[in-house]
TrEMBL record:
Family: Belongs to the MscS (TC 1.A.23) family.
GO biological process: transmembrane transport
Organism in which the protein naturally occurs: Crocosphaera watsonii WH 0003
UniProt protein name: Potassium efflux system KefA protein / Small-conductance mechanosensitive channel
UniProt xrefs under PANTHER family: MECHANOSENSITIVE CHANNEL MSCK, POTASSIUM CHANNEL RELATED
Key words, A-Z: Cell membrane, Membrane, Transmembrane, Transmembrane helix
Signal sequence, start to end: none
Domain Mechanosensitive ion channel MscS C-terminal: 406-488
Origin superkingdom: Bacteria
Length: 552
């Protein structure tokens, strides 16, 4: 329909003869067309020059008249020729005399107004109006600044509401609520919009003030004419055609509209359709993102075609650009594909406790390019998605969050192994974060150099608390062993020297005997000190038990 409308009216518009404006003090009064050997522009220039002379002369008020004694009506000013009204100037359904009378009335009003605008009374009035306009523009600009400072800027420090619902496995808001980055982007967009509005207010104010005075009105008309010519002149070659600045503004507007429409459709797709499918949030986000990019790509091609760009003329340029962009975006493409694999194969999910590249933490977010992990130190680490496919990943929560911990423990030789086993089982069962099924187990692993080594095996359902659980178990094991007199020995080594290995030819026999006696004395002292410490611990336990019995 639109194409038919344009096809019907464009030939009619193309057949219209060119016109030129008759202007006075920057105001367009009416338009004239060519007449005989004179073009419309020549006729308009001559008439405008004559009007300017009349106003600049300072003569008494001009008198506009019509001379009907000629073949065509002639408009006169102060009984001097001004302009002839020809048949080309008359629209259909109107007579020459009627057109001349209409132009005469227009000229009288315009000349009278122009003469009034050159008086002192008008200048005073115009200055007052200009001051009022500047004051009004300043108030509006200040109000917009107050809106930003008082209402919008404080929101940037609290981008998320504490009452905003979040998913149970992560701290991110649920679908339909803006994220922190989206919220900040909206604030920046609002700031830019307010800045543009403030700029428009001042531009409108200055343009209006410039139209109040005849002298500045001419300059404003000249500036607007220059801007208009620079906007509509085709100066940028692209393909087989040239385009103007206005054409590029139109293209930018179309692309912005396309992106806005794509976001709206993507939001509806994500909040209405994908939510009903029961897919995970990561899959929903990825599907919406793929739709977003695809829609923008196809829409851009359609917009360029509608805009008038012949894409076939840019084939070579597009191929070279595609190769360059492809080489430059290899890393991004790799991360994008890796993100799709992670999202759809789901080896890791939001909320999983993982270990990768020496980092341990909970998966907070999975996007098509990167994954966010919050470590045990509450530090967010952004890892590229390819890291999860190129290296080994330990997922403590995969398929089941239940995992086993191994707690190695060593006791001194001579300890009662049955008591050791019972104490380890007791400590494990009394911890609230250790599962009762599977039950804790104790294994005698080996005879060590200085201790008997055991492994306490326990199962937990919260892998992210494994270090805290280990610490709690070690504290409790040490306390229980001390209460039962079970010693956790220091690592020790026995060094034996044979007399044949000692270079006795350079050492006196007295020194050798002294060293031997010192070694024997030190060994005896260490042994007695160890036994004394054990007796003291037992005596303390006996005394404490007696005190408890007396109290009972």
């Amino acid at each position: 329909m639109i194409l038919s409308f344009m096809g019907f009216f464009c030939p009619i518009l193309a057949q219209e003869k060119p016109t030129a404006p008759i202007m006075l003090e920057g105001r367009t009064l009416f338009y004239v067309r060519e007449s005989g050997q004179y073009t419309a522009e020549q006729r308009a220039n001559e008439a405008n020059r004559h009007l300017g002379k009349i106003l600049d002369s300072g003569d008494p008020p001009a008198v506009v008249g019509i001379d009907s004694g000629q073949e065509v009506p002639v408009i006169t000013i102060n009984n001097r020729y001004f302009l002839s009204v020809t048949y080309n100037d008359v629209p259909m359904g109107k007579s020459l005399q009627g057109q001349a009378l209409a132009w005469k009335n227009t000229l009288e009003v315009a000349i009278s107004k122009a003469e009034y605008e050159r008086t002192l009374k008008y200048y005073i009035k115009a200055i007052i109006i200009a001051i009022a306009v500047i004051f009004l523009a300043a108030i509006l600009s200040w109000k917009l600044g107050v809106i930003w400072q008082r209402w919008l800027k404080p929101l940037s420090t609290t981008p998320t509401d504490s009452n905003t619902p979040t998913s149970s496995s992560s701290s991110q808001p649920l679908s339909g609520y803006p994220s922190e980055s989206s919220f900040k982007f909206q604030l920046v967009a609002l700031l830019v919009l307010l800045t543009i509005i403030r700029g428009i207010i001042w531009i409108v104010a200055f343009v209006y003030i410039s139209r109040l005075f005849p002298q500045t009105r001419r300059w404003s008309d000249l500036i607007l004419e220059i801007l208009q010519i620079s906007l509509i002149t085709d100066v940028f070659p692209l393909g087989n055609q040239k385009y103007s600045v206005l054409d590029f503004f139109i293209l930018i507007g179309l692309l912005v509209g396309l992106v806005t429409l794509t976001r709206m459709v993507s939001r509806v797709l994500k909040s209405k359709l994908l939510t009903a499918t029961g897919l995970s949030r990561a899959v929903q986000d990825t599907t919406a993102l793929i739709f977003n990019y695809t829609f923008i790509f196809l829409g851009t091609i359609v917009v360029l075609q509608v805009w008038g760009l012949d894409l076939s003329s840019l084939t070579v340029f597009a191929s070279v650009l595609g190769v360059g962009v492809g080489l430059g975006l290899q890393g991004i493409a790799k991360e994008f594909v890796s993100g799709l694999v992670l999202i759809f194969e789901r080896p890791i999910q939001v909320g999983d406790f993982v270990e990768v590249a020496g980092l341990m933490g909970t998966v907070e977010r999975i996007s098509v390019r990167s994954t966010e992990i919050r470590t045990l130190d509450q530090v967010s680490v952004i890892l590229p998605n390819s890291r999860f496919l190129d290296s080994e990943v330990i997922n403590w929560s995969h398929s089941s969050p239940i995992s086993r911990l191994k707690i190695p423990v060593g006791v001194a030789y001579g300890s009662n192994l049955e008591i050791v086993r019972n104490l380890l089982i007791k400590v494990a069962k009394n911890h609230q974060d250790i599962l009762s099924m599977p039950s804790p187990q104790v294994f005698f692993s080996e005879f060590g150099d200085s201790s008997l080594k055991f492994n306490l095996l326990v199962w937990i359902s919260k892998p992210y608390k494994q270090f805290q659980i280990k610490s709690d178990l070690y504290f409790k094991i040490d306390s229980e062993f001390r209460a039962e007199g079970i010693e956790i020995p220091f690592p020790q080594r026995d060094v034996h020297f044979r007399s044949s290995d000692v270079p006795s030819q350079n050492i006196s026999p007295e020194l050798i005997n002294s060293l031997s006696n010192l070694s024997n004395s030190l060994a005896t002292w260490l042994k007695e000190n160890s036994h004394n410490q054990t007796r003291q611990d037992k005596n303390k336990d006996i005394q404490s038990n007696k005190v408890i019995k007396k109290e009972n």
